[in-house]
Amino acid sequence: MKKFIPQILMFFNLFFFSCGEGISPAPEIIEPGFSGTIRFIGQWPSDITQTNIVLFKNPLLSAADFNVFNIKFISNTIPYGASIYNFDSRENFLLADVQPGEYAYLAVGQSKTPQLSLSRSDWFVAGVYYQNGDTTKPGTLTIPIDALIEGIEIIVDFNNPPPQPPGG
Amino acid sequence: MKKIIVIYFTLIFSLQAQTSNITGKVTSEVGTPLIGANVILQGTLIGTATDSRGNFSFTGLTKAGYIVEVTMVGYKKFVSNPLNLDDDKIDLSITLEPQSFQIDQVVVTAGKHNQDISELPVSAYVINANEFSEKSFVKLDDALRYAPGVNVTFDQVSIRGSSGYSRGAGTRVLVAIDGIPLYTGDTGEIIWEVVPVTEIQRVEIIKGAASSLYGSTALGGVINVITKDIASNPLTYIRTYVGAYDKPSHTEWDWSGERRIYNGLTLSHSNKIGKLGFSLSFSRIEDQSYRQGGWSKRYAGYVRAKYTFNESTNLSFLANGYTQDRGTFNFWKDSRNALVPPDNDQGQRTPSDRLLYALVFENVVNSNFNYKVNTSLYRTYWKDDSESNNSSGTNLYRSEIQTEYKISENLLTVNGIEGSYGIVKSNIFSNPDAKNIGVYTHWEYDFNFPLTLTFGSRFDYGKLDTLKSFSAVSPKFGINYNLSKYTILRSSVGMGFRAPTLAEAFTSTRASGIPVKPNPNIDRETSYSFEIGVNQNISDFWNLDLALFHNEYFDFIEPRIDTTQISDPYVIFDNVPKAKIQGAELNSLFNFDRLNVTLNLSYMYLWARDIENNRSLKYRPRHLFYGKLSYSPGIFEFGLDFRYWSKVEEIDFELIEFNLLPDGHKRVDVYVVDLRGGVNLFTLGVPVNIYLNANNLFNYNYVEMIGNISPIRNISLNLELIF
Asked: What is the CATH number that goes with domain B2-99?
């Protein structure tokens, strides 16, 4: 009997492999994007038909930079008269091509055209995203791989509009 | 007509005037009554099973010398001296000695007649009925997962790698109940729920090609369920169990937020009234399932009646079936939602009804010749709520005449003819029919050295609807040599074949978003197989069995994903020009009687190759290891089971590449541990057994078939009442 004890012990040893968990869920894949809040201060201008969050890849140095290839994100239209609006680039959008990388200009634009227009002259910038409280220049938005940038805040102060990019 | 019946029975009863009785009690060495032991009178068709007190009785015997034979799995066969019935009544007290190893177990499947395993030219294994109670098995395939040389992929059984996973279409293992095949007429699959597990006496597994006796589908082997004989005294059996699945080990998988329950109840009764014996059984089985959509609810019934005309003639009727409603879970949504089906499969149901009727007539003409005629009808119907709204109804008619002739003390032959006709009405396989007829002969010669030579062959002719007809000759030669009291050598070589099923040829549907297309050019597959084995009693408590096997297949039928049209991949069953399955199986059994401990260890190495494409055959693990440790002190029983099989190398990679099965590549080596404990109160005079089981004790997450997690940890309590 004693000579079989090692075999029996080996049999029990095998059980310990079973203590592993086996198949486990794949890591959650987080779609890159950004989310946050728009706060509106003051009286909304009349006749506004379109209010959207817009993200540009490259800086708006001329009217030509306001083009469909440079625009990477347009949110759904923000309801007229809202005082606060929460957004998530992955959920509510008219156009979204948000890849990991740096983005030069994130703003809230308003338009009085009945349909969404991509002509620079139809738009007025109501609020701009600033980084670290530096309101001297538009903030750069950096989106890492597999991550959602949360807590972005843009203030739209109808009484104190931001500097307008060229071509307006 | 009534007058004829009255005259007939008057004659029958008048012939019973000069009769005697044999009664007896069968117990174990420690005096425990053995329930369900098979008691027969040799050379006749008279047989019964012991009741809850181990008692049996034969009444109305004519005055002659009888030999009583008692068999029970796990015990040595008892054979009495010839009994002289000069007295009107003989009362026997029979004690069965435990059997250390299976080698002396009687089986009927290998040669279609009674043989000891030690006499066979092929490998065999027997599952004892007790295992179904002790481990709370609800379906036959649950038990097969622990059988050496066998593995089960989801619901597809494979003996020595014969089958992979073919989505329920076709099988290379013939499963039968008392010799009556159980494959369905449309898909040719085995519906495990049809087998009434509480009526099982033993399950015989014959490994390797058996087409020489059983024809198509027995290419990889035969699993024959032998049901309990009808008790001569009233015997009532009640089994109930309740179990719960633990919560999944990953919170992402906890779709229900609760522990899912399964439970069941079986009521069974058997008795003999005059010459009519009967067994009735009813079961209700419900499983909420650990998978969303994996639930099932089933009602099953079983009726068996046996009328014994005289000692040489009887007629049996079997009706067995169920009605079931279940959800649909083919694949997971993805590995983060591993217990949830894809959105399209949510809420789908598949109701089904299956019913098997059979009539068996047996006659012993004289001590050297007997024959058996059986005929059966297997009706199946199912439908699902899938996007294709599949449904199928099938009638499969089958008949067989089998004779057994002992030409001399050394020479025996079994011959037979078998025919089947299946007709299908469905929207998934169209409405095809299939016909097959087979003629077989089987010869055994026992030399006195002792050497047994076996030769058999079967000719089959068949036609599947519009497909071209086929014919096949399946010869087999076997040899068994008892080299010494301790060493038995065996070897066999044979050819086999399998006709495609109607499903493999004609399926046209979508399953979980995946199209399946028919293949009107599919051909039958053929094989030749070779096995050599040795059984060695190393000592009184250690038995070792080694088998080497080599099987070659031609036009092997396997499902594949056709990606010729990249935008529209689909599943099709096709012939793989050549496949080869080789391997070795080593089984070791330690039986320490004095310590009440047994340890079974079995290992199989499998080399299954698609020769044409030089890669593994799908869903065949290369290494399989099973271990079983049992300890039975007094009235208690404890057991530990361990199963390992290596990660399968080849799967349906196309399903993953074409994003039809997200995360489908996830598969692992499989390590599963089960723990059980029980108490048998029969010894104390209480007709109750209680078992507690913890299955998948360590909650190891694994798949048998990709994208479908096997049962997570679950604990059940099983109660048996026999009186």
From this structure: 2.60.40.1120
> Does position A148 have pLDDT exceeding 70, yes or no?
yes
Does residue A66 form part of some domain? yes
Is A97 inside a domain boundary? yes
Q: A89 lies in which domain range?
A: 30-157
Q: How is A72-136 classified by DSSP, letter by letter?
A: EEEEPPPPTT-SEEEEETTTSEEEE---SEEESEEEEEEE--SS----GGGEEEEEE--BTTBTT
Q: Give me the interface pTM, i.e. the ipTM.
A: 0.76
Question: What span, in angstroms and rounded, lies between the C-alpha atoms of B121 and B574?
Answer: 33
pLDDT over threshold 80, residue A17: no
Determine contact, residues B157/B168, Cβ cutoff 8 Å.
no
pLDDT given at position B32? 80
Please state, in angstroms and rounded to a whole number, the distance separating the CA atoms of residues B183 and B673: 31
Give me the half-sphere count of Cα atoms (radius 13 Å) on the Cβ side of residue B441: 3
Amino acid A19: pLDDT: 63
- CA gap B425, A71 in Å, rounded: 59
Its CATH class, for the domain covering B104-264+276-722, is mainly beta
pLDDT tens-digit profile of B577-594? 899 999 999 999 998 878
Number of independent structural domains in chain A: 1
Q: Is residue A19 part of a domain?
A: no
Chain-centre distance for alpha carbon A115: 23
Count of other CB atoms within 10 angstroms of residue B18 = 10
Distance from CA of A25 to the nearest CA of B (A): 5
pTM: 0.81
Record: contact A18-B629, CB cut-off 8 A: no
Token reading at B451: 């050497």
Q: How many helices (H) and strands (E) does chain A have?
A: 1, 10
- The low-confidence residues of chain B, meaning pLDDT below 50, are 1-17
Q: How far apart are the first and last CA of chain A?
A: 95
Phi/psi for B104 (5° steps) reads -95, 5
pLDDT the model gives residue B326:
92
CATH 2.40.170.20 domain locations along chain B: 104-264+276-722
What proportion of chain A, given as a percentage, has pLDDT over 70? 88
**Cβ atoms of B442 and B407 closer than 8 Å:** no
Q: Which residues of B touch A15 (CB under 8 A)?
A: 640, 642, 671, 673, 698
CA–CA min distance B134, chain A (Å): 21
Contact across the interface for B627 and A11, Cβ inside 8 Å: yes
**Residue B494, token pair as written in the block:** 């044979």
What local confidence, expressed as pLDDT, does residue B61 receive? 79
Note the pLDDT of residue B87.
Answer: 66
Check which CATH number belongs to the domain holding A66 and give it: 2.60.40
Residue B459: name the closest of B477, B437, B481, B442 by CA: B437
Q: What is the pLDDT of residue B11?
A: 39
For B402-443, what is each residue's pLDDT tens digit?
999 999 989 999 999 999 999 999 888 888 899 999 999 999
Residue of B nearest to A11 (CA): B627
CATH 2.60.40.1120 domain span(s) along chain B: 2-99
CA distances, B256 to each of A6, B297, B348, B668 (Å): 44, 18, 17, 25
Name B13's Cβ contacts closer than 8 Å, sequence gap at least 6.
Answer: none
Burial class (CB in 10 A: 0-12, 13-18, 19+), A167: middle
Residue A70: inside a domain: yes
Whether A4 shows a pLDDT value over 50: the answer reads yes
Beta bridge partners of B556: B576
How far is the alpha carbon of A28 from chain B, nearest alpha carbon, in Å? 8
Element (H, E) at B141: helix B140-144
Q: Give the integer Cα–Cα distance in Å for B3 and B335.
A: 71
